[in-house]
Write a structure and sequence with these properties.
Length: 165
């Protein structure tokens, strides 16, 4: 893995229901230090931006593919957060640049649409998280997700995107 990291641009969405719960997916990526089936961390829906695609279009496409939610690009608020992560994924090191949007007042039963082979293999769970559940101290991406979601619950995002870890 001594090669230069592959740059990857992603678009992600913090999906909030009318009660302020956030929808998260659980990562079960192969990790020899974690028992099979255990969730390593919880994260927002989203994924890679394809050639010629805008961040917003990628976010909308990813919502349809990962959770079966079809929305208009105009429904997205933000961007609200920006995150950079450099690390290994399988045999490759990635330099990932994430842009997060928010989608509010969603009532939706998750039905994945067009998952990738890796997403199907991972068999990742999903669930809606309340304020109390977020505060219980699980592993989230971004790491400070409980506080960030609390800010989103306060009302429409009016500032520039916030840099998060």
């Amino acid at each position: 893995m001594g090669e230069r990291p592959v740059q990857r641009t992603t678009a992600r969405v913090a999906v909030l229901d009318p009660d302020g719960r956030v929808l998260l997916l659980g990562a079960r990526l192969p990790d020899p230090s974690v028992p099979p089936g255990e969730v390593l961390f919880w994260y927002t829906p989203g994924g890679g931006v394809e050639d010629g695609e805008t961040l917003r279009a990628a976010a909308v496409r990813e919502l349809a593919e990962e959770i079966g939610l079809h929305v208009e690009v105009a429904a997205l608020e933000g961007p609200v957060w920006l995150r950079r992560h450099v690390g290994p994924f399988g045999e490759q090191v990635f330099d990932t640049r994430e842009t997060f949007f928010v989608l509010r007042d969603v009532v939706h039963d998750v039905v994945p649409g067009a998952l990738t082979e890796l997403e199907l293999l991972a068999d990742e769970p999903h669930r809606w998280w309340s304020t109390g559940e977020l505060a219980a101290g699980r592993a989230f991406v971004p790491a400070d997700l409980p506080a960030l979601v609390a800010e989103l619950r306060a009302g429409p995002w009016t500032g520039p995107p916030r840099i998060v870890a």
